[in-house]
Give the backbone structure.
Amino acid sequence: MAVLRQYLFYLVEVLMSQQQIFAAIPHRDPFLFVDEIVQWTEHEIVCKKTFTGNEFFFAGHYPHYPITPGVLLCEAAMQTGAIFLSTYFKKTHALTEQGVPVVGRMNDVKFRKIVRPGDEVLLHVTLTDQMKDVFFMKAKVTVAGKIAVTFNFACKMVNENDESQM
């Protein structure tokens, strides 16, 4: 009975986490690369993604030795940062401004470990600085406790109706 109770608690947490993700960013399948929010503090967020092997890109990305594309690992980390920023922005701005976080740059990208089908990655993103409406963040993607990718990136909140803001 205790195991069932723990499973139900976990299931409710995951569903609540998914609702938070959907409320925070516009991404949806097949281009949503965050499954669950694991931890959230004032300046950091950690999310989780499990690559099952059924994702569309594995069919053509090294089909005999499937590898998760590094650019998609970066995208997963940036989606994690966008989840953080959408809530951070609402908390720190008294105005009811609408917008979505959009990446303006990536720096110092280092790929260190291959991520394969079946791997679960943790996406660690930390807010390091803010200048006006630009947010600077650092990302670390880990698999089995080992670093797979590290990089820095900058995001800006962009009004969904104004494409000239970037």
About this structure: Residues 2-160 form a domain with the Thiol Ester Dehydrase; Chain A fold (CATH 3.10.129.10). Helices lie at 2-24, 70-92.
